[in-house]
Amino acid sequence: MPWAKAGIIIKASTKPGSAYAAVMATAGHGVRMQYNYTHDTAGLPGAVSAASPRWLRLTRSGDTITGYDSTNGIHWDKIGTVSLAGLPSTVQAGLFATSPSLLLTNGTLSCRGAACSGATRGQTFASNTPLVSIATQATAAFDHVGLHGERAGGAWRGSQVGFPTGIPFVCTPSPGHSCPKAPTGGFKESSGTFTVVGSGDIAPYVTNVDPLGFILKGSLVGLIAVIALGALFITAEYRRGMIRTTFAASPRRGRVLAAKAIVIGSVTFVAGLAGAAVAVPIAEHKLHAEHWASSVYPIWSLTSGHGLQIVVGTAGLLAVAAILALSAGAVLRRSAGAITAVVVLLVVPLILGAILPQTYADWLLRLTPAAAFGLQQGIPHYSQVSSTCEPYNGCYPLAPWDGFAVLCVWAALALAVATYLLRRRDA
To answer: Which H or E run includes 275?
Structure first.
């Protein structure tokens, strides 16, 4: 597991959700400093292994925690500093090891080591459910462990923090073998070396259900109207023959198209911004009234950073879609053809993403303009959290603004083609 991790931690208490800061070695991402579940800072580059170990250090001064790492224990590099407001005078500090659950979707799991606790190396298991979460286990060895400053209590003691992870799943083991056992944690000390075994994760819970994103899918109706408006903004002139008058008054056809793009884009952005700014608070109130916010599902307010992203992103999506439709209208010169082409590019991938296998759906939602719908996604993503992203649940493979950039590239290319053809063809 790339995000299996082991290191040293300072924590306000052992209560789940309490403030913490930790420096750690990971299986696939080098040394990191993480704190308060959502923050992650890289340390020295390079893989960590028994042949290439790391020294880790945490220091506390009041509420300020500073993390360091070193390759030799002599020369230290500071990774970062964080202020954990309200830390008690006595905190929990020590060693930890943990490994997040393995997500298996309609497939098989081949055990190649400690990832399948209790299984034989090379043994294969098959999942007969759409998605299973299989608990994994990490083992770490620490030596040269030191503590400077006052210390409450006696010797080091070990405990399980949090709750077990991974859910039971149905498997079909190889003949003569049993299914994997649920991993357990523990620690032991021998000649100054501590061996710590753990499972689970120190990270935010990421759900794959997005109630606010589902509600915002209603904007598809407005999107189709905007696409029609964008296409008609130029095809209506072709249908009535007014385009000749327009080009006679302004012979520089590229400038005419650019002016139309600015007008339709600006008007659509303002209208979309106003509509989304009204819709999001209404949706938030509705979801709170139905007690969605009392569960694990994220409900974003208009004043939050993510809420503003959704509102501004929705307006940007509508504006760029209108420009894409305008460009298609200039290329095809027919309203029906232009509207159909843009709807196929923007809306059909959403439908296919819900029914195709996830691998194909991911690529479809990466390469088509539909990637921009990630701006309406209410599910937060964290690089240090292994989670499933299922298109049929409203999750998109690209980061929100990256997906918007894909739509902008499509619109820019379409506008360039339209400008070229306007200059080459008769009106």
So the answer is: helix 253-289
Closest CA relative to residue 199, chosen from 127, 118, 131, 145: 118
Question: Side chain identity at 25, as an amino acid letter?
Answer: A
Q: How many CB atoms lie within 10 A of CB 81?
A: 15
Is the Cβ–Cβ distance between 332 and 338 less than 8 Å? yes
> Locate tokens 């299922």: which residue?
390
> How far separated are the first and last CA of the chain, in Å rounded?
61
What angle is formed at CA 238 by the lines to CA 236 and CA 242, rounded to 5 degrees?
Answer: 90
pLDDT higher than threshold 70 for residue 146: yes
Find the largest Cα–Cα distance for the chain. Answer: 91
Mean pLDDT, the chain, rounded, equals 82
- Decide: helix, strand or coil at residue 227: helix
Opening angle at CA 344, ends 339 and 346, nearest 5: 95
Complete edge-to-edge strand list for the sheet that includes strand 186-190:
138-142, 193-198, 186-190
Q: Give the start-end residues of each E strand in 150-280.
A: 186-190, 193-198
Kindly state the percentage of the chain with pLDDT values over 90. 38
Rounded distance between C-alpha atoms, residue 204 and residue 207, angstroms: 10
H or E segment and range at residue 240 = helix 219-240
Give 409's Cβ-side CA count (13 Å radius).
Answer: 13
Run of H or E residues at 20: strand 20-26
| Sequence-separated (6 or more) residues with CB below 8 Å from residue 361 | 352, 353, 354, 391, 392
pLDDT tens by residue, 258-277: 999 999 999 999 999 999 89
Task: Look at residue 122 in the predicted model and tell me its pLDDT.
Answer: 42
Query: Encoding tokens for residue 120?
Result: 């034989």
pLDDT more than 70, % of the chain:
82
DSSP character at residue 91: -
Residue 407 pLDDT > 70: yes
| CB contact set of 164 (below 8 Å; sequence gap of 6+) | 135, 182, 199, 200
92-113, pLDDT tens digit by residue? 899 999 988 776 655 444 444 4
The answer to whether the Cα torsion of 382, 383, 388, 389 is positive or negative is positive
In this prediction, residue 96 carries a pLDDT of 93
Q: What type of residue is 185?
A: G
CB 366 within 8 A of CB 398: yes
Q: Is the dihedral of CA 35, 38, 39, 42 positive or negative?
A: positive
Helix, strand or coil, per DSSP, at residue 130: coil
